[in-house]
Amino acid sequence: MAKILILGGGTTGLTAGLLLARDDHEVELLEVDAGPVPGGPGGAWKAWARDGVVQFRQPHYLQPRGRALYGEELPEVLEALEDARALRFTALSAMPPTITDRAPRPGDDRFETLTARRPMLEQAIARVAASQTGLTVRRGVRATGVLARRGAIGVPYVRGVATADGEHLEADLVVDAMGRRSPMAAWLRQIGVVVPEWSEDAGFMYYSRFFRSTGGGLPAFRAPLNTPLGSITILTLPADDGTWSVTVYGLAGDRAIKRLRHASCFDAVVAACPAHAHWLDGEPITDVLPMAGVLDRRRRLTEGGRPLVTGVALVGDAWACTNPSLGRGLTLGLLHARLLRDVARTGVADPHAFARAWDEATERELGPWYADTVEQDRAAVRAMEAARAGWTLSAPGTVAAALRTAVSHDADAFRLLVANRACWTTMREGLSDRATAARIRQVARDHEPVQPPGPSRQRLLGLLAEPLAA
Ligand SMILES: Cc1cc2nc3c(=O)[nH]c(=O)nc-3n(C[C@H](O)[C@H](O)[C@H](O)COP(=O)(O)OP(=O)(O)OC[C@H]3O[C@@H](n4cnc5c(N)ncnc54)[C@H](O)[C@@H]3O)c2cc1C
Predict the structure, then answer these.
(1) pLDDT for 20
(2) Å from CA of 7 to ligand 1 middle
(3) Which atom of ligand 1 is nearest to the CA of 54?
């Protein structure tokens, strides 16, 4: 079996490490952050220093397909999550009251997840990884560059990495799981490889706040998890141990919403949204956490199907990261980690064959998810820009537009949207069946769109202009 070096001990790197070690590979994982994995969930939330992941304390929701993957491959992670008081939650509980057909359907369990705040999620995976035979996790070790030589097909072959402590570590395969800020492209440039990269900035700014229940349990869903309200969108994410987060996001160019970083403005705006105001009914456990500059970006190590470099695989956010409005990055990273395990089963001994197989599998399995996310982001940006400018966008005659109306009236249309959010089916797959598409169009023709209530643009600007509370 192969010697595999994984760079980065986030959720993707740890999961890849576990899966590869269980396939009898010898796996060494380097994580730059030195902090040991805390013993309990309290320590993970308050004290775990994870400077390598800027979004570590931002809201995170594990999509149902991510939960299912752990159930199939690594049930111990789900047990560790249960120990950390993760929340069992079904996305069907956010079904709008306008849908009267509440009959269960076969396969509804695919909408269930077990979710928690990011530090607890990662701690659960890290605890399982720490006791995995064949996997050595070394914390506090920074990889600083690749060791390369000319490969058999005339392109560089990465045979290992250098570390900040001066070590030279050799491996049959180097896995880049260093996240959205991965330096791998810069390292490869030093050995003459220009990595093709595509990026765009959807340009969202996020303002989030965490709350803990004061006895009443999780607030009821009176609107979808992700509710567009004109020039802003509200995202309500349930989490572990009676906690949840509320995020308000809008366009980075929308200067007025920058005042959302002040708790009194944030609370005033959420309070002005009748279907969301009750999410403030808890004890705030953080201040408002702002986040911006989150690009959609993907990379490839091939050109025209030919590898530009071999011996290295990009995985998770290091391959492609998207802005988090659909909350899929964790789950797509886990799917990618499993795909890596599967492609490695066909062998890593021939670096050229592996590089081609990895690229093909990634583009086939994960590429459509990247495209799906970017397409939905672009539509959200158009809608927010129109709301900000006071324009009414004429609804395009597409089935995707019809779905936006149908999800409020038809239980199966709602499931189709949730299956997309949960990372089961891309929009393209979900809407490809002609009978389904026809039915969605019919529901949309028979009903008016339902818009959850929120402040007008003028009222929003008024709320944001109010003096700050002392
Ligand atoms: C604001 C925000 C909210 C999000 N919310 C959600 C959500 O609700 N649901 C969801 O599914 N996704 C969400 N995401 C996306 C999610 O955070 C990422 O997709 C996920 O963290 C990717 O995991 P990863 O392991 O690939 O990378 P990361 O988690 O970034 O891990 C990379 C690791 O590499 C290490 N590293 C970096 N450089 C080196 C080096 N030189 N040597 C050694 N180690 C190194 C880092 O320390 C880090 O531990 C969100 C993202 C953002 C920005």
Answers:
(1) 98
(2) 12
(3) 53
Residue-wise DSSP of 130-142: HT-TTEEEEET--
CA of 8, closest atom in ligand 1: 34
Query: Ligand 1 centroid vs 180 CA: distance in angstroms?
Result: 7
| 434-446 helix and 399-406 helix, angle to the nearest 10 degrees | 60
- Domains belonging to the chain, first-starting first, are 1-60+117-198+297-388 (3.50.50.60), 204-294+458-465 (3.30.70.2450), 389-452 (no CATH)
Q: Which residues line ligand 1 (CB under 6 A)?
A: 7-13, 30-33, 52-53, 55, 58-61, 63, 142-143, 177-180, 206, 291, 294, 316-317, 324, 327-331, 333
Structure tokens at 408: 């409020």
296: CA distance to ligand 1 center in Å?
13
pLDDT digits (tens, 9 = 90+) for 280-320: 999 999 999 999 988 899 999 999 989 999 999 999 999 99
Cα 317 to middle of ligand 1, angstroms: 7
Q: Is 153 helix (H, G, I), strand (E, B) or coil?
A: coil
> pLDDT grade, residue 128 (50/70/90)?
very high
Rounded Cα distance, 212 and 222, in Å: 19
> At residue 369, what is the residue type?
W
Residues in the chain, total = 470
User: d(Cα 12, Cα 443) in Å, to the nearest integer?
Assistant: 40
Residue 451: pLDDT above 90? no
Which residue among 5, 18, 28, 31 is best mutated to probe the pocket of ligand 1, counting the most ligand atoms within 8 A of its Cβ? 31
Three-state secondary structure readout of 179-196: CCCCCHHHHHHHCCCCCC
pLDDT per residue as tens digits for the range 333-384? 999 999 999 999 999 999 999 999 999 999 999 999 999 999 998 889 998 9
Q: 394 is written with which tokens? A: 């004429």
User: Cα–Cα distances in Å, from 12 out to 44, 145, 226, 277?
Assistant: 18, 20, 25, 35
What is the whole-number distance in angstroms between the Cα of residue 118 and the centre of ligand 1? 10
